[in-house]
Amino acid sequence: MKKYKLALVGATGLVGRTAIKVLEEKNLPISDYAFFASEHSAGKILKLFDNDYVVQKLDEHSFDSGFDFAIFSAGSDIAKKFAPIASKHNCIVVDNSSAFRMDKDIPLVVPEVNPEDIQNNKGIIANPNCSTIQAVVALKPIDMKYKIKRVVYSTYQAVSGAGQKGVEDLKDTLNGLEPKKFPYPIANNCLPHIDVFTEDGYTKEELKMINETRKILHRPDLRVTATTVRVPVMNSHSESINVEFENDFNLDELKQILKDSPGIILQDDIQNNIYPLATNATGFDNVFVGRLRRDNSVPFGINMWVVADNIRKGAASNAIQIVEKLIENSTSSML
Ligand SMILES: NC(=O)c1ccc[n+]([C@@H]2O[C@H](COP(=O)([O-])OP(=O)(O)OC[C@H]3O[C@@H](n4cnc5c(N)ncnc54)[C@H](OP(=O)(O)O)[C@@H]3O)[C@@H](O)[C@H]2O)c1
Predict the structure, then answer these.
(1) Residue 193 is among the residues annotated as catalytic for this protein
(2) Under CATH, to which class is 4-127+315-334 assigned?
(3) Are the C-beta atoms of residues 30 and 4 closer than 8 Å to each other?
(4) Where do you find CATH 3.30.360.10 in the chain?
(5) Ligand 1 center to 246 CA (angstroms)
(6) Residue 335's pLDDT is what?
(7) Which residue among 56, 72, 73, 170 is best mutated to probe the pocket of ligand 1, counting the most ligand atoms within 8 A of its Cβ?
(8) pTM for this structure?
């Protein structure tokens, strides 16, 4: 069986370190790994399967030795500069940043939702925004059955979504120190401000959720709006999602569809206070869905509560699932 070579760019960050854990768990047919970061982390040692790897400074020659795949988790600027270099060396890049997500020639993929789009890649595949990934995993199966008319997102996003510096800001501001990452102390606050504001009053995070949802679901005209909020939670994003359908639906059937769908765990037993929680989602790759109920303010609508680990399903695990699919596709084309 062919063994593959994989590079991790941004290996020392929150997403990169989690990717290492997920790679160990999945044990894919990969024989060679290389870990890249900035000059600041060059020389650090990272462990994978009990082997020590020296972190290398990323540069223009990092991909000369020929990798099959690279997972980039080092922000947009790095992705824009180095992903094209990697793909020129026949290395397929899965990028966690927002650099390429809305490029019409670059697939934006959640394996449970639009795995077929992977085939259209020309060397780069974009991993969606963390808050979009968990939302579309829940929306896709109900859209297939009932055709969604409109979506309203309200998010409650963990500080780990802002990387290591976000985590430090929560710890610091809980101890009365000044924030360095967020504009206000995240301790005891909910900040309706993720990424920068745009001219029409939305933040870029909100526009990411709106535009990426349409692209992944192949519903370019879907009506979607979003309010994204950073909350003082260490890890795992929670989302209230209000969905309006074109036609009537059966709530029990809808719950069953979600329960039977890939990647979803239905936790919807209010008699016993069972519903998704950030602390319970952390460490898992599933999307947890609950609090399903009719929205009585419209003819055919529901509300639901959707929680997932933003570093795992929202970034590292989704990217590795894409690599897994690429390996499956290349193995089946060799048969
Ligand atoms: N956190 C999340 O929930 C989440 C979810 C989805 C997508 N993402 C995306 O994933 C990416 C990483 O996020 P994160 O949360 O892991 O951030 P992070 O904890 O701040 O880590 C950033 C990583 O990028 C590396 N890096 C910075 N400058 C570099 C350079 N010049 N050359 C090479 N590597 C460089 C850092 O290396 P050093 O150690 O050397 O500084 C570090 O490994 C971002 O694009 C983010 O938008 C994050």
Answers:
(1) no
(2) alpha beta
(3) yes
(4) 131-310
(5) 40
(6) 57
(7) 73
(8) 0.97
